[in-house]
Amino acid sequence: MRNNEKIKPFFRVVPPAEAREAIGRINSLGSEFVPVESASGRVLAAALLVPGDLPTFDRAHMDGYAVRARDTFGASDSLPAYLKLSGVVEMGQAPKEPLPRGCAMRIATGGMLPEGADSVVMIEYTEEVAGGQVEVSRSVSPWEHVIRIGEDIAAGAEVLPAGRRLRPHDLGALTGVGILEVSVVRRPRLALIGTGDEIVDPRTEPAPGQVRNINQISLRAMAEAAGAEVLDFGICKDDPEAFASVLARALESADTVFVSGGSSVGVKDMTLDVIAGVPETELLFHGISVAPGKPTILAMTGNGSERKAIVGLPGHPVSALVIFAVFGGPLVRILSGEAPALAFAPQNRTRAKLGRNIDSAPGREDYVRVRVVEGPQGMVAEPLPGKSAAIFSLVYADGYVVVDLHREGLEAGSEVDVILFAGGI
Fold it and tell me: pLDDT tens across 128-173, in order?
């Protein structure tokens, strides 16, 4: 290092809770209408009210016979009731005639009850006998084995609130009540920028001192899994002017920008300076008290509803990917309309006993990669070694264990929550 080259200080290191609070204050995007069949995983921009009752008619809940309950009172195996078979309810059609007193109509599950019927006798307790009669060996109460009009949900009720992330079965329910288009929060456009003279395109054979750009492809997959539309702005060499130009173009095209590399305090780490040079930019923090991933940057640029988040990720693969899992994915989900508390809640977790001690420095929240194996007395989380540049420590891991910043580690045998990597990392 030349005498005039100095390590720069971190701008502002914050505890992880403060980082989460800062991300949680980011506003969600605007809304758009999409067909319900394309809405899975999207977040509702407005509450949905049911336009009509579901079901829209009294329907049979069992195969059997539609009857008037009073016509079966007292029926038993030893003293059955006999009802005249007056017809069959065809599936998908309204009954042509009402049900007369003392009669029964054959009906299948889901069939529409005829006018006058108020219950269904299960087929197991009936038998068709001579003379067009139905023998009933069990009485039923009014509305037994019937799903009433509006029993599932009544017209005018709020079926789903704003901020709800739609699941596959939600789409079926919405279709069932005639909601075929929904207002959802727009999918975030996320720009990815890789940095570093040593980084080359993955299709290029690296020369000595060079490495393939593995962060970009993994971050893209993680961002898409979180719900973003990814715009890849490629690799920027260590040239501040060129970097600033690419960042400006990314901000014009995207709702948020993630920069991989150059976020630390080394002589050639320029991400902070380039971000700080963007007009109308507020640096919220440079550094989070976590490991891996301390040199993480968050800045906001623009005014009012046009404010956009710029995130500087560490260049080491494990650091970049873990930070995206812990903070970046939630940021995408918040932009997508999800409430911060839900966005930061782990998507998948399991309980396990720690296989060996984990050492940790107080004042820092640690994310320790673990492999989950089945032991003689339940699941065991085995901590994995590996530095922040060792991508295969993530490949071999099933998830990670969080060591709170107020603790000096975790003891072997203690019960821990393992946050699982499941499609998002």
Answer: 999 999 999 999 999 999 999 999 888 899 989 999 999 999 999 8
Cα-Cα-Cα-Cα torsion 364, 365, 369, 375, nearest 10 degrees, comes to 110
Q: Smallest Cα–Cα separation from 333: which of 190, 183, 171, 173?
A: 190
pLDDT of residue 387: 66
pLDDT digits (tens, 9 = 90+) for 81-109: 999 999 999 999 999 999 999 999 999 99
The topology (CATH level 3) of 32-54+152-185 is: Molybdopterin biosynthesis moea protein, domain 2 (3.90.105)
Tokens for 113? 């009850």
For domain 349-420, the question of CATH label 2.40.340.10 is answered with yes
Domain 16-30+188-344: CATH superfamily is MoaB/Mog-like domain (3.40.980.10)
Q: 87 by DSSP, 3-state: which? A: strand
- What's the pLDDT at 3? 42
The phi and psi torsions of 83 (rounded to 5 degrees) equal -120, 145
Where do the structural domains in the chain lie, given as residue ranges?
A: 16-30+188-344, 32-54+152-185, 59-147, 349-420
